[in-house]
Protein backbone atom coordinates (compact mmCIF):
# COMPACT_ATOMS: atom_id res chain seq x y z
CA UNK A 1 0.00 0.00 0.00
CA UNK A 2 1.26 3.48 -0.91
CA UNK A 3 2.60 5.47 2.03
CA UNK A 4 1.18 8.94 2.57
CA UNK A 5 3.60 11.88 2.82
CA UNK A 6 2.24 12.97 6.19
CA UNK A 7 1.75 16.54 4.94
CA UNK A 8 -1.96 16.45 5.76
CA UNK A 9 -2.38 20.24 5.81
CA UNK A 10 -1.15 20.45 2.22
CA UNK A 11 -3.39 17.53 1.27
CA UNK A 12 -6.48 19.18 2.73
CA UNK A 13 -5.57 22.49 1.04
CA UNK A 14 -5.30 20.71 -2.32
CA UNK A 15 -8.61 18.95 -1.71
CA UNK A 16 -10.24 22.28 -0.81
CA UNK A 17 -8.79 23.79 -4.00
CA UNK A 18 -10.36 20.96 -6.00
CA UNK A 19 -13.74 21.55 -4.33
CA UNK A 20 -13.50 25.27 -5.08
CA UNK A 21 -12.62 24.75 -8.75
CA UNK A 22 -15.31 22.13 -9.28
CA UNK A 23 -17.80 24.38 -7.47
CA UNK A 24 -17.05 27.33 -9.75
CA UNK A 25 -16.99 25.23 -12.95
CA UNK A 26 -20.78 24.95 -13.61
CA UNK A 27 -21.11 28.70 -13.08
CA UNK A 28 -18.43 29.38 -15.70
CA UNK A 29 -19.96 26.84 -18.09
CA UNK A 30 -23.40 28.43 -17.71
CA UNK A 31 -21.85 31.77 -18.67
CA UNK A 32 -20.59 30.18 -21.91
CA UNK A 33 -23.78 28.31 -22.80
CA UNK A 34 -25.53 31.63 -23.46
CA UNK A 35 -23.48 31.87 -26.67
CA UNK A 36 -21.62 28.61 -27.31
CA UNK A 37 -23.28 25.21 -27.76
CA UNK A 38 -22.54 22.46 -25.18
CA UNK A 39 -20.53 20.19 -27.51
CA UNK A 40 -18.16 22.93 -28.71
CA UNK A 41 -17.71 24.13 -25.13
CA UNK A 42 -16.77 20.63 -24.01
CA UNK A 43 -14.40 20.19 -26.95
CA UNK A 44 -12.46 23.25 -25.78
CA UNK A 45 -12.36 21.92 -22.20
CA UNK A 46 -10.63 18.77 -23.41
CA UNK A 47 -8.49 20.50 -26.06
CA UNK A 48 -7.09 23.22 -23.78
CA UNK A 49 -6.26 20.63 -21.12
CA UNK A 50 -4.62 18.37 -23.71
CA UNK A 51 -2.40 21.04 -25.27
CA UNK A 52 -1.30 22.24 -21.83
CA UNK A 53 -0.46 18.84 -20.34
CA UNK A 54 1.24 17.30 -23.41
CA UNK A 55 4.40 19.48 -23.58
CA UNK A 56 4.66 19.49 -19.78
CA UNK A 57 4.78 15.68 -19.56
CA UNK A 58 7.23 15.46 -22.48
CA UNK A 59 9.60 18.06 -21.00
CA UNK A 60 9.36 16.55 -17.51
CA UNK A 61 9.87 13.05 -18.98
CA UNK A 62 6.89 11.66 -17.11
CA UNK A 63 5.72 9.37 -19.92
CA UNK A 64 7.69 6.52 -18.40
CA UNK A 65 5.18 3.77 -19.23
CA UNK A 66 4.53 4.63 -22.87
CA UNK A 67 5.91 1.26 -24.03
CA UNK A 68 2.95 -0.43 -22.38
CA UNK A 69 0.79 1.13 -25.10
CA UNK A 70 1.75 -1.88 -27.20
CA UNK A 71 -0.53 -4.04 -25.06
CA UNK A 72 -3.91 -4.51 -26.74
CA UNK A 73 -5.71 -5.04 -23.41
CA UNK A 74 -4.26 -1.88 -21.86
CA UNK A 75 -5.08 0.19 -24.96
CA UNK A 76 -8.64 -1.18 -24.87
CA UNK A 77 -8.94 -0.22 -21.19
CA UNK A 78 -7.58 3.28 -21.90
CA UNK A 79 -10.07 3.75 -24.76
CA UNK A 80 -12.95 2.47 -22.64
CA UNK A 81 -12.11 4.77 -19.73
CA UNK A 82 -11.55 7.73 -22.06
CA UNK A 83 -14.88 7.21 -23.83
CA UNK A 84 -16.73 6.88 -20.51
CA UNK A 85 -15.17 10.13 -19.29
CA UNK A 86 -16.14 11.75 -22.60
CA UNK A 87 -19.74 10.59 -22.14
CA UNK A 88 -19.63 11.91 -18.57
CA UNK A 89 -18.57 15.38 -19.76
CA UNK A 90 -21.16 15.44 -22.56
CA UNK A 91 -24.11 14.37 -20.42
CA UNK A 92 -23.04 16.73 -17.63
CA UNK A 93 -23.04 19.86 -19.76
CA UNK A 94 -26.24 18.85 -21.58
CA UNK A 95 -27.88 18.29 -18.20
CA UNK A 96 -26.50 21.59 -16.89
CA UNK A 97 -27.98 23.40 -19.90
CA UNK A 98 -31.47 22.13 -18.98
CA UNK A 99 -31.25 22.59 -15.18
CA UNK A 100 -29.09 24.90 -13.07
CA UNK A 101 -25.57 25.01 -11.58
CA UNK A 102 -26.92 24.14 -8.11
CA UNK A 103 -29.00 21.19 -9.32
CA UNK A 104 -26.11 19.82 -11.37
CA UNK A 105 -23.69 19.84 -8.46
CA UNK A 106 -26.12 18.27 -6.01
CA UNK A 107 -27.05 15.53 -8.47
CA UNK A 108 -23.39 14.82 -9.33
CA UNK A 109 -22.78 13.89 -5.69
CA UNK A 110 -24.29 10.58 -6.75
CA UNK A 111 -21.00 9.75 -8.51
CA UNK A 112 -18.63 9.30 -5.51
CA UNK A 113 -21.35 7.55 -3.49
CA UNK A 114 -22.03 5.11 -6.34
CA UNK A 115 -18.28 4.55 -6.66
CA UNK A 116 -18.12 3.50 -3.02
CA UNK A 117 -21.03 1.11 -3.59
CA UNK A 118 -19.34 -0.21 -6.73
CA UNK A 119 -16.27 -0.94 -4.63
CA UNK A 120 -18.37 -3.38 -2.61
CA UNK A 121 -19.37 -5.25 -5.76
CA UNK A 122 -16.28 -4.93 -7.99
CA UNK A 123 -13.41 -4.84 -5.50
CA UNK A 124 -15.12 -6.78 -2.67
CA UNK A 125 -14.63 -3.91 -0.25
CA UNK A 126 -16.54 -3.71 3.03
CA UNK A 127 -19.36 -1.22 3.61
CA UNK A 128 -19.79 -0.44 7.30
CA UNK A 129 -23.16 0.13 9.05
CA UNK A 130 -22.22 3.80 9.48
CA UNK A 131 -21.68 4.09 5.74
CA UNK A 132 -25.12 2.61 5.07
CA UNK A 133 -26.59 5.24 7.41
CA UNK A 134 -24.74 7.91 5.46
CA UNK A 135 -26.10 6.48 2.21
CA UNK A 136 -29.69 6.62 3.54
CA UNK A 137 -29.17 10.25 4.63
CA UNK A 138 -27.73 11.02 1.18
CA UNK A 139 -30.69 9.54 -0.71
CA UNK A 140 -33.15 11.28 1.63
CA UNK A 141 -31.34 14.57 0.95
CA UNK A 142 -31.66 14.11 -2.81
CA UNK A 143 -35.39 13.47 -2.48
CA UNK A 144 -35.86 16.57 -0.33
CA UNK A 145 -33.72 18.83 -2.54
CA UNK A 146 -35.62 17.93 -5.71
CA UNK A 147 -39.05 17.49 -4.08
CA UNK A 148 -40.37 20.79 -5.52
CA UNK A 149 -39.51 19.41 -8.97
CA UNK A 150 -41.14 15.97 -8.68
CA UNK A 151 -43.74 16.86 -11.35
CA UNK A 152 -40.94 17.72 -13.80
CA UNK A 153 -39.41 14.26 -13.43
CA UNK A 154 -42.23 11.82 -12.72
CA UNK A 155 -45.27 13.40 -14.42
CA UNK A 156 -44.54 15.87 -17.22
CA UNK A 157 -40.86 14.96 -17.78
CA UNK A 158 -40.02 18.54 -18.69
CA UNK A 159 -36.67 19.76 -19.96
CA UNK A 160 -35.62 20.13 -16.33
CA UNK A 161 -36.54 16.51 -15.62
CA UNK A 162 -34.67 15.30 -18.71
CA UNK A 163 -31.69 17.35 -17.56
CA UNK A 164 -31.71 15.63 -14.16
CA UNK A 165 -31.81 12.22 -15.85
CA UNK A 166 -28.85 13.26 -18.01
CA UNK A 167 -26.93 14.32 -14.91
CA UNK A 168 -27.72 11.00 -13.26
CA UNK A 169 -26.47 9.13 -16.34
CA UNK A 170 -23.38 11.35 -16.32
CA UNK A 171 -22.65 10.28 -12.74
CA UNK A 172 -23.05 6.61 -13.66
CA UNK A 173 -20.66 6.93 -16.62
CA UNK A 174 -18.12 8.63 -14.33
CA UNK A 175 -18.28 5.65 -11.96
CA UNK A 176 -17.51 3.32 -14.88
CA UNK A 177 -14.56 5.52 -15.82
CA UNK A 178 -13.28 5.64 -12.23
CA UNK A 179 -13.39 1.83 -11.85
CA UNK A 180 -11.34 1.31 -15.01
CA UNK A 181 -9.01 4.16 -14.02
CA UNK A 182 -8.35 2.46 -10.69
CA UNK A 183 -7.21 -0.64 -12.59
CA UNK A 184 -5.12 1.39 -15.06
CA UNK A 185 -3.21 3.13 -12.26
CA UNK A 186 -1.51 -0.21 -11.56
CA UNK A 187 0.24 0.18 -14.94
CA UNK A 188 0.37 3.94 -15.60
CA UNK A 189 0.74 7.09 -13.55
CA UNK A 190 -2.23 9.45 -13.32
CA UNK A 191 -0.72 12.04 -15.68
CA UNK A 192 -0.23 9.47 -18.45
CA UNK A 193 -3.84 8.32 -18.30
CA UNK A 194 -5.25 11.84 -18.22
CA UNK A 195 -3.13 12.80 -21.25
CA UNK A 196 -4.76 9.97 -23.22
CA UNK A 197 -8.24 10.80 -21.93
CA UNK A 198 -7.99 14.50 -22.81
CA UNK A 199 -6.95 13.74 -26.38
CA UNK A 200 -9.70 11.11 -26.74
CA UNK A 201 -12.27 13.66 -25.60
CA UNK A 202 -10.95 16.38 -27.91
CA UNK A 203 -10.93 14.05 -30.93
CA UNK A 204 -14.41 12.68 -30.21
CA UNK A 205 -15.99 16.12 -29.87
CA UNK A 206 -14.10 17.81 -32.73
CA UNK A 207 -16.33 16.53 -35.62
CA UNK A 208 -19.49 17.63 -33.77
CA UNK A 209 -18.23 21.07 -32.79
CA UNK A 210 -19.32 24.30 -34.45
CA UNK A 211 -16.87 27.18 -34.41
CA UNK A 212 -19.15 29.75 -36.09
CA UNK A 213 -20.26 31.12 -32.71
CA UNK A 214 -16.71 31.87 -31.55
CA UNK A 215 -16.78 35.34 -33.12
CA UNK A 216 -19.81 36.16 -30.94
CA UNK A 217 -17.94 35.48 -27.69
CA UNK A 218 -17.17 38.48 -25.53
CA UNK A 219 -13.74 39.01 -23.98
CA UNK A 220 -15.12 37.69 -20.69
CA UNK A 221 -16.45 34.54 -22.38
CA UNK A 222 -13.09 33.91 -24.07
CA UNK A 223 -11.53 34.12 -20.63
CA UNK A 224 -14.16 31.72 -19.24
CA UNK A 225 -13.45 29.27 -22.08
CA UNK A 226 -9.73 29.29 -21.29
CA UNK A 227 -10.39 29.01 -17.56
CA UNK A 228 -12.71 26.02 -18.09
CA UNK A 229 -9.90 24.16 -19.86
CA UNK A 230 -7.40 25.09 -17.15
CA UNK A 231 -9.94 24.14 -14.50
CA UNK A 232 -10.26 20.67 -16.03
CA UNK A 233 -6.51 20.16 -15.88
CA UNK A 234 -5.67 21.82 -12.54
CA UNK A 235 -8.63 20.42 -10.56
CA UNK A 236 -7.77 16.82 -11.43
CA UNK A 237 -4.11 17.57 -10.73
CA UNK A 238 -4.91 18.93 -7.27
CA UNK A 239 -7.18 15.96 -6.62
CA UNK A 240 -4.47 13.43 -7.56
CA UNK A 241 -1.83 15.27 -5.54
CA UNK A 242 -4.11 15.51 -2.50
CA UNK A 243 -4.34 11.71 -2.49
CA UNK A 244 -0.55 11.59 -2.03
CA UNK A 245 -0.70 13.52 1.24
CA UNK A 246 -3.95 12.48 2.94
CA UNK A 247 -6.35 9.51 3.02
CA UNK A 248 -8.78 9.16 0.11
CA UNK A 249 -11.75 9.17 2.49
CA UNK A 250 -10.75 12.56 3.92
CA UNK A 251 -10.19 13.97 0.44
CA UNK A 252 -13.67 12.76 -0.53
CA UNK A 253 -15.13 14.39 2.59
CA UNK A 254 -13.67 17.78 1.64
CA UNK A 255 -14.76 17.48 -2.00
CA UNK A 256 -18.30 16.66 -0.84
CA UNK A 257 -18.51 20.36 0.05
CA UNK A 258 -18.46 21.29 -3.66
CA UNK A 259 -22.24 21.93 -3.89
CA UNK A 260 -21.95 24.49 -1.09
CA UNK A 261 -19.53 26.49 -3.24
CA UNK A 262 -21.87 26.45 -6.23
CA UNK A 263 -25.03 27.20 -4.24
CA UNK A 264 -23.33 30.06 -2.38
CA UNK A 265 -22.05 31.70 -5.57
CA UNK A 266 -25.31 31.48 -7.53
CA UNK A 267 -27.62 32.37 -4.63
CA UNK A 268 -25.56 35.24 -3.21
CA UNK A 269 -24.03 36.84 -6.31
CA UNK A 270 -26.30 38.19 -9.09
CA UNK A 271 -24.85 36.80 -12.32
CA UNK A 272 -26.08 37.86 -15.78
CA UNK A 273 -27.63 35.01 -17.76
CA UNK A 274 -27.80 32.63 -14.78
CA UNK A 275 -31.10 32.03 -13.00
CA UNK A 276 -30.74 30.88 -9.40
CA UNK A 277 -32.54 27.71 -8.34
CA UNK A 278 -35.60 28.64 -6.21
CA UNK A 279 -34.57 27.09 -2.89
CA UNK A 280 -37.13 26.60 -0.13
CA UNK A 281 -36.40 25.32 3.38
CA UNK A 282 -36.82 21.64 2.47
CA UNK A 283 -34.48 22.06 -0.52
CA UNK A 284 -31.78 23.70 1.60
CA UNK A 285 -32.12 21.00 4.26
CA UNK A 286 -31.95 18.38 1.51
CA UNK A 287 -28.72 19.89 0.17
CA UNK A 288 -27.19 19.72 3.65
CA UNK A 289 -28.29 16.08 3.95
CA UNK A 290 -26.72 15.28 0.58
CA UNK A 291 -23.42 16.77 1.71
CA UNK A 292 -23.59 15.23 5.19
CA UNK A 293 -24.55 11.83 3.80
CA UNK A 294 -21.66 11.99 1.31
CA UNK A 295 -19.20 12.82 4.10
CA UNK A 296 -20.46 10.00 6.35
CA UNK A 297 -20.41 7.50 3.49
CA UNK A 298 -16.85 8.52 2.53
CA UNK A 299 -15.43 8.57 6.06
CA UNK A 300 -17.47 5.78 7.67
CA UNK A 301 -14.49 3.42 7.64
CA UNK A 302 -12.16 5.77 9.51
CA UNK A 303 -11.24 4.46 12.91
CA UNK A 304 -11.30 7.28 15.43
Structure characterization notes:
It is globular, with a radius of gyration of 19 Å. 74% of the residues lie in helices and 0% in strands. It has one domain. The model has no long low-confidence stretch (mean pLDDT 85). It is an all-alpha fold and 304 residues long.
List keywords for this structure.
13 helices; 304 residues; mainly alpha
* Count of discrete structural domains: 1
What's the overall geometry? globular
Portion in helices: over 70%
Query: Mind telling me the C-alpha Rg?
Result: 19 Å
Instruction: Write down the overall mean pLDDT.
Output: 85
What is the strand tally?
Answer: 0
Largest sheet: none
H/E topology pattern:
HHHHHHHHHHHHH
Can you count the helices? 13
Percent of residues in beta strands? under 5%
Helix and strand topology:
Blueprint: H1 8-33, H2 38-59, H3 72-98, H4 101-107, H5 110-122, H6 129-145, H7 150-154, H8 159-184, H9 190-205, H10 219-245, H11 248-255, H12 258-268, H13 281-299
Characterize this entry briefly:
By secondary structure, the chain is mainly alpha-helical. It has 13 helices and no strands.
